[in-house]
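User: Is it possible to get a 3D structure for a protein together with its bound compound? The compound here is magnesium ion. I've pasted both below.
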Amino acid sequence: AAKAAGRGQFSFYTESMEARVVKRLGLERALRQAIPGQQLRLVFQPQIRLDDNRVSAFEALVRWTHPELGEVPPQEFIPVAEEAGMIHDIGKWVLHQACKEARAWPDRVRVAVNLSPLQVMARDLRADVAHALATSGLPPERLEIEITESVLMGDSHITLAKLHALRELGVRIALDDFGTGYSSLAYLRRFPFDQLKIDRSFVREIVTRPDARAIVRATIEMANALRMETLAEGVEDERAVEVLREHHCGSVQGFLISPPIRNDDVLDFLRARSEAPEPAPAAQS
Ligand code: C2E
Ligand code: MG
Ligand code: MG
Ligand code: MG
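Assistant: Yes, that's possible. Here is the predicted structure of the complex:
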């Protein structure tokens, strides 16, 4: 019986490995149809400044709805796109679409776009960003690029040159998920990010755990000293906002303010906060 069970476990194990590989290949094949099949769309999550309570930007987040698989979360398909070499096309689509959609917003509201480390390493990054700005007509200062710390782990000279080239276009650069990567504080001196986004894993525990609060506070103080703005990600309750305010955090983003919304709802969101003009009244007949 023990032997049978052992064999059973073994075959169960290999089956699940196989199942995973099959699923991965299926996902990859399906993903190839995402752009041509118009299955991708963007949703936008507001970022709010704490000093004046106004919307500074919306972060563009990609969504993929497959006809049979349904909604596949980005944390599942972005890694597949990266491994299968599809992230460049998807990333370009996101960049163009985000710039285009943001054109309809009030002038002072920026759009933040996530870039995969592989996109940052690609030779034509600067040209891609310049092209997205030119074809959409979005002023460069209304675009913010979000990169993660892993970008800074590769060849740092090349990476820094690429980030400087982007900055020369006039776009802002934010460091996403700060504190979760293999951070070296040295690169914060070498590259002046416009904003540090403090990862949700610290923000989530800011009210209940003194250690998380200490890390957030130290991060904000350091960023302020280096003249970088700060944003706390994943803010879910009002008490967290109070703590962040006490520690002079610049902005907040999270479900407390709003989940990511469709662009159709962005202007209504701003109007409800009196941050966009009411639509012109319909013509009298
Ligand atoms: P991220 O850039 O750190 O984006 C924040 C994620 O946290 C989003 O998940 C957002 O919906 C979620 N979030 C926001 N507020 C809260 C909150 O209060 N509580 C909780 N629990 N979650 C919150 P999403 O949209 O599923 O995206 C996950 C990750 O996928 C992103 O993390 C980003 O790394 C990646 N991603 C999304 N869109 C793109 C894209 O267009 N390009 C690339 N390269 N990566 C993307
Ligand atoms: Mg992000
Ligand atoms: Mg983030
Ligand atoms: Mg995060």
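The pocket of magnesium ion (ligand 2) is lined by residues 59, 114, 146, 176 (CB under 6 Å). Residues 1-8 have pLDDT under 50 and may be disordered.
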